[in-house]
Amino acid sequence: MKRQAVTSIVIFLACAGVVALGLATGPRERPSAASVSPPHKWNYAPGSWVLVHEVYRQGAHQGESDDRYELTDRTPEAVTLRIESVGPKKQSLTRIVGLKDELDAVEGATRVGKESIVVDGRTFACVIFKRPSGSGEVRFWLAPGLPWPVRTIDNDGSEVREVVLTRVTDSVTFGAGRLDCAVFSETRSAGGQALHRATSWRNLAVPGHEVRREEQFEVSGEPVSITRLVAAYAVKVAPR
Protein backbone atom coordinates (compact mmCIF):
# COMPACT_ATOMS: atom_id res chain seq x y z
CA MET A 1 0.00 0.00 0.00
CA LYS A 2 1.36 3.37 -0.94
CA ARG A 3 2.04 5.46 2.11
CA GLN A 4 0.33 8.83 2.07
CA ALA A 5 2.63 11.73 2.86
CA VAL A 6 1.63 13.83 5.81
CA THR A 7 2.55 17.44 6.42
CA SER A 8 3.13 18.32 10.06
CA ILE A 9 2.80 21.76 11.52
CA VAL A 10 3.92 21.96 15.14
CA ILE A 11 3.40 25.06 17.21
CA PHE A 12 4.44 25.26 20.84
CA LEU A 13 2.89 27.92 23.03
CA ALA A 14 3.98 28.87 26.54
CA CYS A 15 1.35 28.67 29.27
CA ALA A 16 0.60 31.44 31.72
CA GLY A 17 2.11 30.69 35.13
CA VAL A 18 -0.15 29.36 37.89
CA VAL A 19 0.14 28.40 41.56
CA ALA A 20 -1.23 25.06 42.76
CA LEU A 21 -3.28 25.07 45.98
CA GLY A 22 -5.60 22.55 47.66
CA LEU A 23 -9.38 22.63 48.06
CA ALA A 24 -11.09 23.42 51.32
CA THR A 25 -11.37 19.69 52.04
CA GLY A 26 -7.68 19.08 51.39
CA PRO A 27 -5.64 18.58 48.19
CA ARG A 28 -7.94 18.34 45.19
CA GLU A 29 -8.10 14.94 43.55
CA ARG A 30 -7.13 15.07 39.91
CA PRO A 31 -10.39 14.54 37.98
CA SER A 32 -10.38 11.47 35.78
CA ALA A 33 -9.82 12.04 32.08
CA ALA A 34 -13.37 10.78 31.50
CA SER A 35 -14.70 13.92 33.19
CA VAL A 36 -12.90 16.25 30.79
CA SER A 37 -14.94 17.56 27.87
CA PRO A 38 -13.27 16.90 24.50
CA PRO A 39 -12.61 19.89 22.24
CA HIS A 40 -15.32 20.80 19.74
CA LYS A 41 -14.02 19.74 16.35
CA TRP A 42 -11.27 17.51 14.94
CA ASN A 43 -11.16 18.01 11.17
CA TYR A 44 -7.49 17.00 10.90
CA ALA A 45 -5.51 13.85 10.13
CA PRO A 46 -4.76 11.21 12.82
CA GLY A 47 -1.70 12.14 14.86
CA SER A 48 -2.91 15.69 15.50
CA TRP A 49 -2.95 16.60 19.19
CA VAL A 50 -3.46 19.43 21.64
CA LEU A 51 -2.19 19.88 25.20
CA VAL A 52 -4.63 21.79 27.41
CA HIS A 53 -3.58 23.35 30.71
CA GLU A 54 -6.36 23.82 33.25
CA VAL A 55 -6.49 26.05 36.33
CA TYR A 56 -9.46 25.47 38.64
CA ARG A 57 -10.52 27.48 41.65
CA GLN A 58 -13.15 26.73 44.26
CA GLY A 59 -13.60 29.56 46.69
CA ALA A 60 -10.14 30.67 47.81
CA HIS A 61 -8.43 27.46 46.73
CA GLN A 62 -6.78 26.57 43.47
CA GLY A 63 -5.31 23.63 41.58
CA GLU A 64 -4.00 22.85 38.11
CA SER A 65 -3.79 19.96 35.65
CA ASP A 66 -2.88 19.07 32.07
CA ASP A 67 -4.64 16.85 29.52
CA ARG A 68 -3.39 15.76 26.11
CA TYR A 69 -5.92 14.94 23.39
CA GLU A 70 -4.68 12.99 20.36
CA LEU A 71 -6.71 12.12 17.28
CA THR A 72 -6.07 8.44 16.58
CA ASP A 73 -8.76 7.62 14.01
CA ARG A 74 -11.56 9.27 12.04
CA THR A 75 -14.57 8.19 9.99
CA PRO A 76 -17.24 10.30 8.25
CA GLU A 77 -19.38 10.01 11.40
CA ALA A 78 -16.95 10.31 14.29
CA VAL A 79 -13.39 10.70 15.51
CA THR A 80 -11.51 8.63 18.09
CA LEU A 81 -9.53 10.56 20.68
CA ARG A 82 -6.95 9.29 23.14
CA ILE A 83 -7.12 11.46 26.24
CA GLU A 84 -4.18 11.36 28.64
CA SER A 85 -3.88 13.09 31.99
CA VAL A 86 -0.36 14.46 32.36
CA GLY A 87 1.17 14.41 35.85
CA PRO A 88 1.93 12.09 38.79
CA LYS A 89 -1.40 10.24 38.42
CA LYS A 90 -1.36 9.51 34.73
CA GLN A 91 -4.68 8.33 33.34
CA SER A 92 -5.63 7.43 29.80
CA LEU A 93 -8.82 6.55 27.97
CA THR A 94 -10.19 6.42 24.46
CA ARG A 95 -13.34 8.30 23.55
CA ILE A 96 -15.32 8.32 20.30
CA VAL A 97 -16.77 11.74 19.55
CA GLY A 98 -19.46 12.38 16.95
CA LEU A 99 -18.71 14.98 14.30
CA LYS A 100 -22.14 16.62 14.48
CA ASP A 101 -21.76 20.01 16.16
CA GLU A 102 -22.25 23.70 15.47
CA LEU A 103 -20.12 23.57 12.34
CA ASP A 104 -22.48 20.99 10.80
CA ALA A 105 -25.57 22.91 11.86
CA VAL A 106 -27.31 23.18 8.49
CA GLU A 107 -27.54 19.43 7.89
CA GLY A 108 -31.06 18.24 8.75
CA ALA A 109 -32.19 21.74 9.71
CA THR A 110 -35.06 23.91 8.44
CA ARG A 111 -34.64 27.51 7.37
CA VAL A 112 -37.04 29.70 9.38
CA GLY A 113 -36.05 33.33 8.77
CA LYS A 114 -33.45 36.08 8.56
CA GLU A 115 -32.01 38.60 11.01
CA SER A 116 -29.19 41.16 10.99
CA ILE A 117 -26.93 41.03 14.05
CA VAL A 118 -24.30 43.66 14.91
CA VAL A 119 -21.03 42.44 16.47
CA ASP A 120 -17.98 44.68 17.00
CA GLY A 121 -19.60 47.37 14.86
CA ARG A 122 -20.05 44.96 11.95
CA THR A 123 -23.46 43.93 10.68
CA PHE A 124 -23.93 40.26 9.78
CA ALA A 125 -26.90 39.25 7.62
CA CYS A 126 -27.84 35.94 9.21
CA VAL A 127 -30.09 33.14 8.05
CA ILE A 128 -31.88 31.39 10.93
CA PHE A 129 -32.19 27.60 10.98
CA LYS A 130 -33.79 25.21 13.45
CA ARG A 131 -33.77 21.49 14.15
CA PRO A 132 -35.04 19.21 16.96
CA SER A 133 -33.12 18.99 20.24
CA GLY A 134 -34.44 16.65 22.92
CA SER A 135 -38.07 17.60 23.48
CA GLY A 136 -37.37 21.10 22.18
CA GLU A 137 -35.35 22.68 19.40
CA VAL A 138 -32.05 24.40 18.63
CA ARG A 139 -31.89 27.56 16.53
CA PHE A 140 -28.75 29.04 15.01
CA TRP A 141 -27.94 32.18 13.09
CA LEU A 142 -25.45 31.64 10.23
CA ALA A 143 -23.66 34.44 8.38
CA PRO A 144 -21.55 34.24 5.18
CA GLY A 145 -17.82 34.17 5.83
CA LEU A 146 -18.03 32.99 9.46
CA PRO A 147 -17.18 29.38 10.35
CA TRP A 148 -19.41 29.40 13.47
CA PRO A 149 -22.99 30.55 14.07
CA VAL A 150 -23.27 34.16 15.23
CA ARG A 151 -25.86 32.97 17.74
CA THR A 152 -27.09 29.57 18.93
CA ILE A 153 -30.04 28.89 21.25
CA ASP A 154 -30.50 25.26 22.27
CA ASN A 155 -33.68 24.63 24.28
CA ASP A 156 -33.92 20.88 24.82
CA GLY A 157 -36.99 21.14 27.04
CA SER A 158 -35.13 21.09 30.35
CA GLU A 159 -32.29 23.60 29.94
CA VAL A 160 -31.50 26.48 27.62
CA ARG A 161 -27.98 26.95 26.27
CA GLU A 162 -27.17 30.17 24.43
CA VAL A 163 -23.89 30.88 22.60
CA VAL A 164 -23.34 34.36 21.16
CA LEU A 165 -20.44 35.83 19.18
CA THR A 166 -19.27 38.91 21.10
CA ARG A 167 -16.01 39.79 19.34
CA VAL A 168 -14.97 38.95 15.79
CA THR A 169 -11.24 39.16 16.52
CA ASP A 170 -9.35 39.16 19.81
CA SER A 171 -5.70 38.25 20.29
CA VAL A 172 -4.78 35.55 22.80
CA THR A 173 -1.12 35.68 23.84
CA PHE A 174 0.97 32.68 24.93
CA GLY A 175 4.36 33.98 25.98
CA ALA A 176 6.02 34.89 22.67
CA GLY A 177 3.15 33.50 20.60
CA ARG A 178 -0.25 34.95 19.69
CA LEU A 179 -3.41 33.81 17.95
CA ASP A 180 -6.33 35.89 16.70
CA CYS A 181 -9.58 34.35 17.92
CA ALA A 182 -13.33 34.83 17.71
CA VAL A 183 -14.85 35.28 21.18
CA PHE A 184 -18.11 33.68 22.30
CA SER A 185 -20.23 34.13 25.42
CA GLU A 186 -22.10 31.05 26.65
CA THR A 187 -24.93 30.75 29.17
CA ARG A 188 -26.73 27.64 30.40
CA SER A 189 -29.94 28.21 32.37
CA ALA A 190 -33.03 26.43 33.68
CA GLY A 191 -36.24 27.97 34.95
CA GLY A 192 -34.90 31.42 34.14
CA GLN A 193 -31.89 30.96 36.46
CA ALA A 194 -28.34 30.93 35.11
CA LEU A 195 -26.52 27.71 36.01
CA HIS A 196 -23.30 28.11 34.09
CA ARG A 197 -21.49 30.92 32.28
CA ALA A 198 -18.47 30.66 29.99
CA THR A 199 -16.36 32.62 27.53
CA SER A 200 -14.48 30.82 24.76
CA TRP A 201 -11.80 31.98 22.32
CA ARG A 202 -11.78 29.98 19.06
CA ASN A 203 -9.34 29.63 16.19
CA LEU A 204 -9.67 27.12 13.34
CA ALA A 205 -5.91 26.39 13.33
CA VAL A 206 -6.05 24.62 16.70
CA PRO A 207 -7.35 21.04 17.02
CA GLY A 208 -10.61 21.33 18.92
CA HIS A 209 -10.72 25.04 17.98
CA GLU A 210 -10.85 26.33 21.59
CA VAL A 211 -7.67 28.25 22.40
CA ARG A 212 -8.93 29.50 25.76
CA ARG A 213 -12.04 28.85 27.83
CA GLU A 214 -13.21 30.44 31.09
CA GLU A 215 -16.16 28.97 33.04
CA GLN A 216 -18.04 30.10 36.15
CA PHE A 217 -20.63 28.17 38.17
CA GLU A 218 -21.41 27.18 41.77
CA VAL A 219 -20.99 23.99 43.78
CA SER A 220 -22.94 23.86 47.08
CA GLY A 221 -23.18 27.64 47.04
CA GLU A 222 -19.43 28.12 46.57
CA PRO A 223 -18.18 29.85 43.39
CA VAL A 224 -16.10 27.74 41.03
CA SER A 225 -14.08 28.98 38.06
CA ILE A 226 -12.16 26.98 35.48
CA THR A 227 -9.72 28.34 32.90
CA ARG A 228 -8.45 26.10 30.10
CA LEU A 229 -5.59 27.29 27.91
CA VAL A 230 -3.84 25.55 25.02
CA ALA A 231 -0.19 25.02 25.93
CA ALA A 232 0.99 23.29 22.74
CA TYR A 233 -0.46 21.58 19.69
CA ALA A 234 0.46 19.80 16.48
CA VAL A 235 -1.62 19.59 13.32
CA LYS A 236 -1.15 16.92 10.66
CA VAL A 237 -2.84 17.51 7.34
CA ALA A 238 -2.96 14.81 4.65
CA PRO A 239 -2.51 16.30 1.14
CA ARG A 240 -5.58 16.23 -1.08
- Structural class comes to mainly beta
The CATH class turns out to be Mainly Beta
Distance between the termini: 17 Å
As residue ranges, the low-confidence spans are 1-40
The oligomerization state is single chain
Instruction: Give the CA-based shape.
Output: globular
| Count of β-strands | 14
**Over all CA atoms, what is the radius of gyration?**
19 Å
> Which architecture name does CATH use?
Beta Barrel
Note the total helix count.
Answer: 0
Structure description:
The protein is mainly β and 240 residues long. It has one domain (7-237): YmcC-like fold (Beta Barrel), CATH 2.40.360. Helix content is 0%, strand content 61%. The protein is built from no helices and 14 strands. Strands 1, 2, 3, 4, 5, 6, 7, 8, 9, 10, 11, 12, 13 and 14 form a 14-stranded antiparallel β-sheet that branches. The protein is globular, with a radius of gyration of 19 Å. Mean pLDDT is 74; it is low at 1-40.
Can you lay out the helices and strands and say which pair or pack?
Blueprint: E1 7-12, E2 49-58, E3 61-74, E4 78-86, E5 91-98, E6 110-119, E7 122-133, E8 136-142, E9 151-155, E10 160-174, E11 177-190, E12 193-202, E13 210-219, E14 222-237
Antiparallel strand pairs: 1-14, 2-3, 2-14, 3-4, 4-5, 6-7, 7-8, 8-9, 9-10, 10-11, 11-12, 12-13, 13-14
